[in-house]
Amino acid sequence: MRYEGDIYRPGPTENNSYLLQVTLGCSHNKCTFCSFYKDKPFRVRPYEELEEDIMMARNYYKYVPSVFLCDGNVTCLSMDRLRPILQKIKEVFPESAHTNMFGRYSDVYRKTVDELKEMKELGVEQIVMGLESGSDIVLSKIKKNCTAEEEIIAGQKMHEAGIELGTGVILGLGGVEHSEDHVKGTIRVLNEINPPVIGFTVLNPQTGTPLYNDIQSGVFELPTYRQIFWEEAEILKGLQLKRPTNILTGVFLPNNDVISGTFPDEKERLVKLSESRMKKYPQWLDKKLIMNGHL
User: Fold this and answer.
1) Residue 157 belongs to domain spanning
2) pLDDT in tens, 216-227
3) Which end of the chain is less packed: N or C, by CB atoms within 10 Å?
């Protein structure tokens, strides 16, 4: 097993998965808020290297419960490149329950339903992709290279193919100026795609990113926690999900206060918990979001 640079694992469902680094970095790598893959240029590892890594893992691990493909967006690979990798994993790790991966909505949007169905047959149960926002204004400003309509089509294709979508929303990503549009657009997209898993995080600007520089120069106004609590509650209230969806929200710095449950059955409970944050944390309400994980 050979790894280059920082490796990111989505949790907790992939905590025991064998990580196979299929690509290095992110093929897009232009999102203004992201610092994950700035340390390495994007490239696709040759199949021969991956085959060697798979065999090394087989010799090292007696039992591999599951496999996860990284780095940032393995879905950028064509089926001609992805197929032999998935086939080899099924051949070498017959005990593995799945082969999941990170992806991008723009990549899945370009794939056909038949291609996604083939991925499902070859062991792909879930693709983890950052929605970030459902607002075209916000998506354009953060240089996501994807529109809300493309997000919807990609999510619907995955549902038709039977692949679970694990997606994330970043509260505060629209700043003060575009907060309302961020909320309304995100509600619309989530209702259209009804993903099985939604995680909410809060914007945490990192040094060296374009967004951090925009904050420093005053181009982007950081929201307060009052706005973050409002966005969270408004999105939860606006969700009209027909299929079961696991919600996880509250990974807020400087303190984690996680709310989790299943929509639509537990919607009322989750909304009430979210709405209670204003009273629970009055000392945070007028504080701006933190930078680099520090107050």
Assistant:
1) 128-295
2) 999 999 999 999
3) C
